[in-house]
Design brief:
The complex is a heterodimer of chains A (701) and B (159). By secondary structure, chain A is α+β, with helices and mostly antiparallel strands. Chain A is built from 17 helices and 26 strands. Classes of the chains: A alpha+beta (701), B alpha+beta (159).
């Protein structure tokens, strides 16, 4: 029979996924969490579809270790593509079991029964509902792979733009976020970070602060400092006082930000050949075109500073967190505190948008450390905005050099892609080298190892989308993963795809230009996959022509990870004083669109965020500290600067769903870069496309 | 040095509420922790992102940077108090209709800012809506949906 989807094979017990509640509802447990992307709604649609119940009967509680299936991380645009398939199979099996049990109860063969909203009816009208069956026993068994999910044509819930489950609460201000969690006896904690990387505490006078009314604890553990107080305002004032009394030994640890590309290409590195194909008969190379691009470090810059709650009580540690990986976080805390993971529970509670590995895990460990100082009291820890922008992991800076060889007929015959970057995966709980932030500050600190990169076969890190989607007979992709890490780097939405697609698509435009070809035609000529061609053609067909002296239009395309959604973006920019993106016209093919509006929302949001990265964002630092630690020094795009965005979905109901959460990042950056070149005739290869970088590029030509 | 705790009376969502805290405590902390109104969010503490926006006498104000002593006796409206008892405010209904959020953390401040705009200017054009919402940041890229929602709310109020 059918092979089980991996997430179901790992967590085969059906009762771990689905519970038929007494009250006429159905609880669906998923290891995938809400990070602002709306995935619980899509998963609930899949469950309602396969179980044949009304959508509003489905309950989607937050993931909890020990109760929910362990699905690792919510990352990589994989929730619908992979977890959705597991849930679909689990629910199809549950339905089949319920139907078989009802057949026995009703003494009727299953093929004579109909199921509607959980009610199983035989031809004479006698019926029994899911909620009348002994489902506790029935579902306490492993999935077998023997049930067949519905065909696309039979879908009535999947494929519809079902409104998101969480939005009514959010627009009316009901408590939903980890920041809003008010457990009985809640105390408030603050952490005082060192003033710079590598700083060590010299002196501190904790006594006057510990003696303040309402202060419950002052915690010092090596260079880790924190306070706990009865009220949040007291905790904040105590933390400010603690900061004022602390003296630190500081020294330079960071590179010169003005020479960052040179730094990246001169560091010791782990060099890996990610792809190497050579045709049997080498082609004659007529000319070679090269381009070298640079992206700075980027911040997640979620609207909410990181927050978590922890409670230490009777040898148990309970943690409430908006982590993207409840189980990995549990493992990381257990390792850091040398505790049995069974004594720790991690309950997922929503936070603000998660775009990768941000400070959520770190603050959960901060909360655990402070909670241990006040046993029996839950402690909420909230980071400051400067700590959020200064201490959470960054998406790594990179240099990418691409070179294409053309033959005498202007066909691409060779392609080389070389990346210098820190790794993109420094998530705690996934290996020994990625400690939680406070663990690097405590006495007997654990050193962070340079971030890793997953193999290309599972999506890659620095090399993600380093392999162009175009037909290139000879291909070499090389990654130099840095073995020094002055600033901690980890996963930020789309990982290396953002800069790799920017580089590849810039070069495709240049190749078209030097060969006198139309950039769209040139791409289509080198694309074999009809779905790739279709998104480009759709985006182009829907994007208006532009006119005006400093206006330009450009295209960017990629299939995310070379395995997820296809996305093409046409950007319209003008560049009178600064670069403004007026419009983005996007086409996306994600196979079966479970929730088309949710899909469009993800693509559109990703494109706007990528526009912000491309136009304005850059982590700034001096030789000791990150200096871009407020919204003034780390500006993001505002309402009046946001382009209009149009998303065209090419729905393919009979094709598997493909992840979309990160698909528009790279193509958007590329489209903007190409549109800017169309507008001003200059290639700006250094991101972001600020006035300074544009002027520098003009001067360099 | 901070001031001593005092009982401060605030007028929040039409009701008199007492808060026992130091007068220089922020309005945001008073709302979220003393009055259980967590709809206003902490985003930066520096009046730079708008997550904490509430209305004071009908005007948008950054609650994170507003000391509680300064708003005694003034009419404070939070997102929880924007609607009448029966159904959500026109702006909130429009946000739901347009599915105008992703993570939603910025939304309560933006809803209030939009409601304040429509009180003063019932028929703003798109550019005016964007300008009015500019003090609020959104990181998820839901801006255009929110702008559409505000324009829809303006139409609904009109009709």
């Amino acid at each position: 029979m059918g092979e089980l989807p991996p997430a179901l094979a790992t967590n085969p017990r059906l009762a771990d996924w689905v519970r038929i509640d007494p009250a006429g509802t159905i609880t669906v447990r998923s290891g995938k969490v809400e990070i602002g992307q709306g995935v619980p709604t899509a998963l609930a649609q899949i469950a309602a579809e396969e179980l044949d119940v009304a959508f509003d009967r489905i309950r989607m509680p937050g993931t909890r270790t020990g109760t929910s299936p362990d699905e690792g991380l919510t990352a990589g645009s994989m929730s619908v593509q992979y977890s959705g398939i597991a849930l679909r199979q689990a629910c199809a099996e549950v339905r089949a079991l319920l139907l078989a049990a009802a057949a026995e109860e009703l003494d009727t063969p299953t093929d004579e029964l109909t199921v509607r909203d959980g009610k199983i009816t035989r031809p004479d009208g006698h019926a029994i509902s899911y909620w009348k069956l002994d489902t506790a026993t029935l579902l306490d068994r492993a999935a077998t792979g023997q049930a067949t999910p519905k065909a696309g044509a039979d879908h009535t819930v999947v494929g519809r733009s079902t409104p998101r489950l969480d939005i009514p609460d959010k627009v009316t201000g009901r408590p939903r976020y980890i920041h809003d969690l008010r457990l009985p006896g809640l105390a408030f904690g603050r952490v005082v970070r060192p003033p710079s990387r590598g700083a060590h505490l010299l002196g501190l006078d904790t006594e006057p602060i510990a003696a303040r009314p309402g202060v419950l604890a002052v915690v010092r553990d090596g260079d880790f400092l924190g306070v706990v107080a009865e009220r949040e305002e007291l905790a904040q004032r105590a933390a400010d006082a603690l900061q004022a009394t602390a003296t630190w030994d500081e020294h330079d640890t960071l590179p010169d930000e003005h020479a960052l590309p040179e730094f990246l290409t001169s560091q010791p590195a782990d060099t890996t050949v990610l792809a190497d194909t050579t045709p049997d008969q080498p082609a004659e190379v007529a000319r070679t075109v090269t381009a070298r691009v640079h992206r700075p470090y980027l911040a997640h810059a979620s609207l909410a500073p990181s927050a978590a709650v922890a409670l230490a009580e009777d040898d148990q540690l309970s943690v409430w967190s908006n982590t993207q990986g409840p189980y990995p976080l549990r493992g990381a805390i257990a390792a850091a505190l040398d505790l049995d993971p069974e004594r720790i529970s991690v309950q997922h509670v929503e936070g603000a948008g998660g775009y990768g590995h941000n400070g959520a895990d770190d603050v959960a460990f901060d909360a655990a450390l402070l909670a241990r100082a006040v046993p029996g009291r839950p402690v909420q820890v909230l980071w400051s905005r400067p700590d959020e922008l200064g201490w959470a992991p960054f998406g790594p800076a990179a240099v990418v050099e691409v070179a294409a060889e053309l033959d005498a007929n202007d066909e691409i015959v060779g392609w080389r892609h070389e990346i210098w970057s820190n790794g993109h995966v420094g998530r705690p709980g996934l290996g020994p080298g990625a400690p939680l932030l406070a663990a690097t500050h405590r006495a007997d600190p654990v050193q962070s190892q340079p971030a890793a990169d997953p193999p290309l076969a599972v999506g890659g890190g620095s090399g993600r989308n380093g392999v162009p989607g175009y037909r290139v007979p000879a291909l070499k992709v090389i990654s130099h993963r840095l073995l020094t890490m002055p600033l901690r780097t980890s996963a930020l939405r789309s990982l290396g795809a953002f800069v790799n697609v920017f580089a590849i698509e810039s070069l495709m435009d240049e190749l078209a230009e030097v060969t006198g070809a139309d950039p769209v035609e040139f791409r289509l000529r080198h694309l074999d996959d009809p779905r790739a061609r279709a998104v480009i053609e759709t985006a182009i067909a829907n994007a208006p022509e532009v006119s005006g002296e400093s206006a330009g239009r450009g295209l960017g395309f990629a299939r995310y990870k070379n395995t997820a959604a296809y996305c093409a973006v046409v950007a319209e920019v003008d560049a009178v004083d600064k670069v403004r993106v007026r419009r983005l016209t996007i086409a996306v093919d994600a196979g079966l669109a479970v929730n088309p509006d949710g899909l469009a929302n993800q693509i559109e949001g990703g494109a706007i965020q990528a526009t912000s990265w491309t136009l304005t964002e850059r982590v700034r630092f001096d030789r000791r500290r990150v200096t871009s630690d407020t919204w003034e020094t780390y500006p993001i795009l505002r309402f009046s600067e946001v382009p209009s965005v149009e998303v065209h979905i090419i729905d393919r109901p009979e094709q598997p769903s493909l992840g979309v959460g990160e698909a528009s990042q790279g193509p958007t950056a590329a489209a903007i870069g190409n549109a800017l070149h169309d507008a001003i005739g200059v290639r700006v290869r250094r991101l972001p496309l600020t006035e300074a970088n544009v002027v520098a590029a003009i001067d360099a030509e | 040095m901070t001031s001593a705790p005092a009982v401060i009376t605030l007028r929040v969502n039409g009701a008199e509420r007492e808060v026992h805290t130091e007068p220089d405590t922020s309005l945001l902390t008073a709302l979220r922790n003393h009055l259980g109104l967590t709809g206003a969010r902490f985003g930066c503490g520096l009046s730079l992102c708008g997550s904490c926006t509430v209305l004071v006498d009908g005007d948008p104000v950054y609650a994170c940077d507003t000391p509680v002593w300064s708003v005694r006796g003034r009419a404070i409206t939070t997102v929880e108090g924007l609607a009448g008892p029966d159904r959500p405010h026109a702006v909130q209904r429009a946000f739901i209709a347009e599915q105008a959020a992703q993570c939603g953390y910025c939304v309560s401040g933006i809803v209030l800012r939009a409601a304040a705009l429509l009180e003063r200017e019932p028929q703003p054009d798109e550019a005016r809506v964007r300008e009015a919402l500019d003090p609020s940041l959104c990181r998820c890229g839901a801006h255009n949906r929110m702008v559409r929602a505000v324009l829809r709310a303006a139409e609904d109020r009109d009709g």
